[in-house]
Amino acid sequence: MTVTEQLSALGNILAHGDLSSLFQPIVSLSEQRILGYEALTRGPSNSPLHSPLTLFAVARHAGRLSELEMACRKSACKGFSDLGLEGKLFLNVSPESLLDPSHQPGRTLKLLQTFGIPPSQVVIELTEQSPTEDFALLDNALHHYRAMGFSIALDDLGAGYSSLRLWSELRPDYVKIDRHFIDGIHLDAVKREFVGSILKMAEASRAQVIAEGIELPEELAVLTEMGVDLVQGYLLSRPQEKPPREARQLLPQMQSNQASLSEDSHDLSALLNDQLAVDQHTAIAEVLDVFRAQANLNSLAVLNTQRQPVGIVHRHSLSEALLKPFATDLFARKPISRLMSQDFLAVELTQSLQKVSRLLTSRARQRIEEDFIIIQNGRYLGLGRVIDVLKLITEQKLQQARHANPLTLLPGNVPIQQCLGRLLQQQREAAVCYVDLDSFKPFNDLYGYAKGDEVLLCLAQCLNDRVDPARDFVGHIGGDDFMLVLGSPDWREKLGKLIEDFQNQCRRFYRDEHLQTGCFIAHNRHGQRQEYALLSLSIGVVHVRTEDCAQLDASRLAEMASEAKRQAKAVPGYSLHILAGSAA
After folding, report:
1. Residue 484: which of 432, 428, 550, 555 has the closest Cα?
2. Residue 261 pLDDT > 70, yes or no?
3. In this structure, which topology does domain 403-583 adopt according to CATH?
């Protein structure tokens, strides 16, 4: 097809609005619901411009990108409205079109008004196909969208020319990790490190992370264990003209919210308030009467006919909306669905307290007086209060502090035993590692306790650096003994890197002459001078498989780890001894 023919085909498409929109769901794993849908555009099926890559490339070449994107938005809004889809609508927008001098502010808002979609339901998803240089101008353009109530998402994080700077400058509400880092993440430790870093940055910037391009159950399992909550990909659903509406149908292979080894696995029963909810068709005047009758009521869940949450209404938001002139007369007989918020948190009763706390803190707009919804198998149970979560988390932190090692602040013996118990209860495969420092007592005697404490802190840091909080656990038994529980399949690789890290890090603690000779002389327990090798690690490992869990208890598992460590210490220098869990 010649360039002239391509331009002619593009002109026909734009003239007649001959575009189709497909919708791919974005699913919240913790809430077991569809957060929203990304709208994806296709050209006419019988056209050479059917592929979006070709279509947008031709539009960019013709200088008509902004015009095409507006046509795509119109198609997406119409399809979303016609289908009556619930949740967020993610609309792809390029920085180029926003910065185009021909771009007319306000057109997207008019489109939404035409199709009856509130701006609060729409996410502007920024896609980067070429370098962005004028960050200030782009920030200003997006500020107008935010002022109108839109949310902002940054697409393909890690793939663009300046995506990290865009994140820093624009502070989006959502960030999408590029699918390259999702593909085969269960087999690639570097990709897991990258995603882990993104999750930490997102927590600091109060952004929600979306992992897109998920195609394998193993990828989804790893992302879930790492703490990723929002997911998208062919494994769940391909883009469709009529997409699925129920998240639970898309996640048949998911186990219900398995807690990490380092956190309590109790459910949310202690937080549950058995509060009545309202139907989405209830008149606003009736909802207002409910709030007036219950002075301490902050929020009400809004349900559909299947008792599934579709929104939430907060006292302060409803009051603000009805304070406007003539608002009461205008809205009194309207259904509460007109004023409810669709930006709510709903969590399964089986969810862990720590997970709920992380979800709440990741929500930039969550207010302490607002409530969240607790569900069971997708259906409404009651409400939970943010303040109650904070109280319970504070109590747990105080409890953890009482059982923490005073030097390293790592969990002590009580949490270690609890971790081993959870491992067996959840029947999870893991490597239970007893880590011991060789030559530590004579080193301590020769170099002093202060230097010895530095070594212990160094080892604690090396251990923490090798731990994935979503899958692993590290504790301090006491003295120079540590416990490491690795739930990831690459535990051998992690232990190898741990040994390498500590070997490099601890060199700074020795005198030059000891580094040169590879040993030092100190008094032994009998008061005699003795030559000792430099510090090294002896690691005893019990490899626990799923089928071993029923045959073990926490005390026996700890004994086996200690025995494996004793076998490792029988070998001079850095050593690793592995016992099978079935050896019990």
Report:
1. 432
2. no
3. Alpha-Beta Plaits (3.30.70)
